Amino acid sequence: MSRFFSDKYAYLDPYTPGEQPRDRRYIKLNTNESPFPVSELALQEAAAAAERLHLYSDPECTELVKTAAEVFGIDRDEVLFTNGSDEMLNFAFMAFCDDEHPAAFPNITYGFYPVFAEINNLPYAEIPLREDLTIDISDYIDIGKTVFIANPNAPTGIALSRSEIEHIVQRNPDNVIVIDEAYVDFGAESCLPLIHKYENLLVVQTFSKSRSMAGARLGFGAGNPALISDLKKIKYSTNPYNINSMTMAAGIGALKDNEYFRRNCAIIAETRRYTADELRALGFLIPDSSANFLFARHPDIGGEELYLELKERGILIRHLSRPEISEYNRITIGSRKDMETLICTIRSILEEKK
């Protein structure tokens, strides 16, 4: 770093995004992207918006908010759109955490949570998962902290039920509970219906996964109007024009093309089932996943070794070096053809080790 870099950030351990190598063509199963292109309607809407790029985008996201409210059954003052769900999560750390309200989240979860806490100089607690990698909701009862839970959790793919999350929300009435539903559309229960019932619940979603818009950067938070007003104060103090016009328009098209969205989610869920069955037949241990990825380990080959062997053969998966999970790899569900290639390649690697 330069000699000008502020000491207040010198200690940061930044989030490491999934690798995006350009040295060769890979089957990319490492960043939880959709195997499907964005819907045609979204492309058409974005193309029309491109004609207005000489103008600032609408800071209120008026038409996008209107469409989302209709699709999700919420009021317009209960939703705020951001530049990806990461921005919304950062806003939530900024708005609802301080010395009197520390953050709390699982010790094995989305790697950005501790980074958001650190960069905002916020106290936080990392709560261990059970040995089977599940969240023990009793750890979050009457905790007196702002809770962040990814549901389904990442990188495990394991989901809590809506009733379990509601119990956490009920038992922490004086703290905000943030439920990060980046992967909810692949088989878990969304907590969006609960925002009308609880003033302390914020639900965060993204268009990156199930709506095939990872490159567009669009997310949102939904909650009580007072919570959304708090988050708007943060937004308008940082970047009022945080959603560009083409992304906004593509989001409207993606929401309107609900049939395409639902069909893709169903195909991914079926491909996930197929892949899990095939990998288990090869001896892999895999927790039940409600996401668009699997978290897998094999007793006869280390996590890093398998990751490197697959990379050498043109297939990328995500290896996380944290000691508690270093024997696992996170495998994105791609197309059926991609997963058949993955399984065939892993079978060859395992046979070569015998």
The Cα radius of gyration reads 21 Å
**Which oligomeric state applies?**
single chain
Whole-Å distance between the termini? 47 Å
CATH topology type of the largest domain: Aspartate Aminotransferase, domain 2
Q: Order of strands across the widest beta sheet?
A: 2-8-7-6-5-3-4
Q: Specify the number of helices.
A: 10
Describe the structure.
The strands form two sheets. The chain has a seven-stranded mixed sheet with strand order 2-8-7-6-5-3-4, sandwiched between helices. Helix 4 (112-119) links the parallel strand 3 (103-106) and strand 4 (124-127). It is 36% helix and 14% strand. It contains ten helices and eleven strands. Helix 2 (62-72) runs parallel beside helix 7, helix 3 crosses helix 6 and helix 8 (258-281) runs parallel beside helix 10 (336-353). It is α/β, with parallel strands linked by helices. It has two domains: 17-37 and 259-353, Aspartate Aminotransferase, domain 1 (Alpha-Beta Complex), CATH 3.90.1150; 40-256, Type I PLP-dependent aspartate aminotransferase-like (Major domain) (Aspartate Aminotransferase, domain 2). The protein has helices spanning 40-50, 62-72, 84-96, 112-119, 162-170, 225-235, 245-256, 258-281, 303-312, 336-353, and strands spanning 27-29, 79-82, 103-106, 124-127, 146-150, 177-180, 201-206, 219-223, 293-296, 315-319, 329-332.
